[in-house]
Structures are given as structure tokens and as C-alpha cells.
Design brief:
alpha+beta; Mago nashi protein; 8-stranded mixed sheet; 4-stranded antiparallel sheet; 18 strands; 19% helix; globular
Length: 376
């Protein structure tokens, strides 16, 4: 979904300017932009909370919309929060070894039939929740609240980091555990058998660990102690090749009082939202094309949080991705395009491919999501 500069300036600019006068933040006016008018029916959940959800469930490797709805609604009800605060950050197809989706309750009898379904990770920017579901989302179970490496045994963590360090030719100090989850593998090959390899059929308790490096993310399967570590090659064959954003499609530069901006566009509802962070900690979000400005929100984070976020841009070298776009796969539809702009550069990506971004860029995206989630 391309962003055209000429669409930034429309008759709505005067309305936005007036609204900013009323809030006492005139300096933001030149930073507020318009990609395109978007008027469509609202979806069942926030367009900024959905991950890659197939509208017609045509592609088997994309998360079906009913599954996404079911997971988001279940978690929102459990935690007493709005689905607008939640975002599906990762998912993959999985065949569970029993009718309890490998999450039996105490003394529960589980059918031994294999169940095709999904493993879905949901985040509010502060913590993650992991769900197991069947194919249509009518059966789902909350696996855990996951904070990377909190419960990961030290022996497993060290083994994975050492293996990843050799693979990526990077020192361990430059690697991080992005995600970890306990798993019970269906065979002695940890479900990663090579050609003609014989695998014992015994269940093997272990871990699925995601490691982030400078430019790549690796997925490993391990046993319970880390003595056996295998790279999931298939999961790592999704590296993205960026393309340069044409100068004519770059958004306008930021006003001097604005330190960061996110523009999100697309999704099922086809709406465009703009969020800007000011030096003083104000976080302003508007929907472009909202004639009554009814969806405007003005929240705040501390100046210390702003400074910390700016340091993260420097630390993780946000400028190395200058004016790059990480496009969606060919044929993809209903995805959300995010355009991030600092005082020095612009980066564009989409929710379908977010987890395949360079690891440093993923850290920046996470830091930005934490800013927006913590604003009051």
C-alpha cells in the first residue's frame, strides 16, 4: 500500500489546525499529514490490533479472521481491556497432539486425535499472551503470559545463544532472546527431521526460542536442558528484502517540536491514523478524514520516556534503514502499512511481515509500541 505525498495536503488541514489551536499545540500542525481519505465500515476489532488476517481465508498459511477475533475477544474479556490495546504480533500453523491443544487441565482426559490449528501471540506492548487454537477459533486455550527469557532455563538460554552466535557470526552480547515458550515435541528430532533421518516417536519436553541478531531472527527448537538444539530452517526462510521509498512517496519531514510519527493505513476498515510524539511528551492521535475530529486523542508520557525512546533510536541505529520499505508478500491483502518517521529518516513496513524485519528495527518498533501503550 503506497503512500503518496500529494495526498497529505487536503482541505482537512485547516480543520486540524483549528483543533490544535484549541489544545494549545500549534507546533504540531505542520507535522500532521494526510495519506488518503478512508471511509469504510468498522471491523470487529481495532485495525491497529490485527495481525495478518485473511479476509476470505483463502491462503492456508494466513491467520483466519475468525481465529484472530476469537483470540482478541477472549483476552480482552480475561484482562478487562479493550481489543484496541491488543495486537497479534506472531502466529504459525500447528498440529496439536491431542484434543486439549496440548494444554490439559488437571485430571482432564484429552482425546488423542491430532488437531490442526494455530499458535497465536498477542501483545499490549508490555507483555505477551500465547494462545493455542483449532482451525476456526471455536476451540482455544491460553498457554501462558510470556515475557521473553523470564522462565527460560539458563542452560537452554546459553546453548541457544552460543549456537546462534556461531551461525550469525556475531558476539553473544549483540544477540537477544525475543521470545521463548515451552513445547512438547512429538519426536526425538524435535519435529525438525532431516531427510532420511530416523526419529524416536517419544514426546520430548523442550523449548521454542526466538533469537534476534543485528539483521536476522532465528528460531530454535531445544530439549528441556539445552543439550539438543536444532535450527528451524523453515521458520527462518522469511527474510525481507527492502526497497527504496521513491522520493515522491516520502511523507513530509517532521516539525521541529515533533520527535516521531507513525502513520498506519489499510486493514479491513481501510482507515488512516496518524500518531505524533512531541518533545514535551504529548502523544496525539487522529484519524485522517474524520470530519468531526471525533477520534482525536491527546495523551502524555514523561519527558524521561521521550528521551529514553530517542536514545533507543540511536542505540539501534534507526538511521541505517533510511527511507527503506519492507513490502508485503505478493498477493497479500487487507494488511496494515506503518510508516515511521524520525527527524532523520523514514521506514515503512506492514503487519504481515513485521516479525521478519531486521532485529534492530524490531526493537525500535517495540519501543514505539511501548510508548503508545504507556501514554495516559
Amino acid at each position: 500500500m503506497k503512500i503518496m505525498v500529494k495526498a497529505y495536503f487536503s482541505t482537512n488541514k485547516a480543520r486540524i489546525f483549528t483543533a490544535l489551536v484549541l489544545t494549545g499545540i500549534l507546533s504540531v500542525t505542520s507535522g500532521l499529514t494526510l495519506i488518503k481519505d478512508a471511509t469504510a465500515a468498522s471491523a470487529n476489532f481495532s485495525l491497529e490490533t490485527s495481525s495478518d488476517v485473511s479476509k476470505d481465508n483463502i491462503k492456508s498459511n494466513r491467520l483466519p479472521r475468525p481465529v484472530a477475533n476469537a483470540v482478541l475477544q477472549d483476552l480482552a474479556q480475561r484482562e478487562g481491556i479493550s481489543t484496541r490495546e491488543l495486537k497479534i504480533t506472531n502466529y504459525n500453523q500447528h498440529t496439536w497432539s491431542n484434543g486439549c491443544l496440548e494444554l490439559p487441565q488437571p485430571d482432564e482426559a484429552c482425546t488423542e486425535a491430532l488437531v490442526s490449528g494455530w499458535r497465536v501471540v498477542v501483545s499490549n506492548g508490555k507483555q505477551n499472551w500465547i494462545y493455542h487454537t483449532n482451525n476456526n477459533g471455536r476451540l482455544l486455550r491460553l498457554a501462558s503470559t510470556n515475557n521473553p527469557s523470564d522462565k527460560l532455563p539458563t542452560s537452554v538460554k546459553n546453548a541457544v545463544l552460543q549456537t546462534a552466535s556461531r551461525r550469525l557470526q556475531q558476539p553473544i552480547s549483540q544477540l537477544r532472546i525475543v521470545e521463548s515458550q515451552q513445547q512438547t515435541w512429538r519426536n526425538g528430532c524435535l519435529e525438525l527431521a532431516s531427510a532420511d533421518e530416523f526419529c524416536t516417536q517419544a514426546l520430548v519436553p523442550g523449548w521454542r526460542v526466538v533469537v534476534g541478531g543485528r539483521e536476522k531472527t532465528l528460531v530454535y527448537h531445544t530439549n528441556q536442558t539445552g543439550l539438543v538444539v536444532r535450527l528451524n530452517e523453515k521458520a527462518n526462510q522469511n527474510a525481507l528484502t527492502p526497497v527504496k521509498i521513491p522520493a515522491s512517496e516520502l511523507p513530509p519531514p517532521l516539525d521541529r517540536d515533533v520527535v516521531f510519527r507513525q502513520i498506519s493505513s489499510g486493514g479491513f476498515a481501510g482507515r488512516t491514523y496518524e500518531t505524533v510524539l512531541l518533545k514535551n511528551g504529548q502523544l496525539i492521535r487522529v484519524r485522517i478524514g474524520d470530519e468531526n475530529d471525533s477520534e482525536r486523542s491527546v495523551r502524555r508520557v514523561s519527558v524521561q520516556q521521550v528521551r529514553k525512546f530517542l536514545r533507543s533510536l540511536e542505540r539501534y541505529k534507526f538511521t541505517q534503514y533510511r527511507n527503506l520499505s519492507y513490502p508485503a508478500p505478493s498477493g497479500a491483502a487487507d494488511y496494515i502499512t506503518y510508516t515511521l518517521t524520525s527527524q532523520k529518516n523514514t521506514v515503512q513496513y506492514n503487519d504481515i511481515s513485521q516479525n521478519n524485519l531486521p532485529s534492530n528495527l524490531q526493537v525500535v518498533v517495540k519501543a514505539w509500541n511501548q510508548i503508545t501503550a504507556s501514554a495516559q
